[in-house]
Design goal:
Length: 118
């Protein structure tokens, strides 16, 4: 059982946990993998009851899909039980670096070599 499933079973899952779970379903359109796994989602914060603020980045500041990707993230957050509003902020500090921010599976897919070398 995953940590999230254990929290659900014990009734300890927070709104932030639920939003993160929803964001894991958002697929980066060019690479076809979850944006969370790429390390593009930096933070989720519950500001007020039901309002969340999400910090994310893009693979490039010049990404032509930026508006679409922000909308995907906002929609996923808004579909989360308990979320009444969502604000998505695109930031570039720190700059996205898949060698340190992506999951091991994504690093391997992107050609970052043997995980033992990181």
């Amino acid at each position: 059982m995953s940590e999230q499933q254990e929290k659900q079973a014990q009734g300890q899952e927070t709104l932030k946990d639920r939003v993160w779970a929803s964001l894991k379903t958002v697929i980066e359109p060019e690479l076809g993998v979850p944006m969370v796994d790429l390390g593009l989602i930096y933070d989720v914060e519950e500001i007020d009851d039901g309002h969340v603020h999400i910090k994310m980045t893009l693979t490039s500041p010049f990404c032509p899909m930026s508006g679409y990707m922000v909308q995907l993230v906002e929609n996923a957050a808004l579909e989360t039980d308990g979320v009444s509003s969502a604000e998505v902020e695109v930031v570039f500090d720190p700059p996205w670096d898949p060698s340190t921010m992506a999951t091991d599976e994504i690093k391997s897919m992107l050609g970052y070599g043997d995980p033992m070398e990181w």
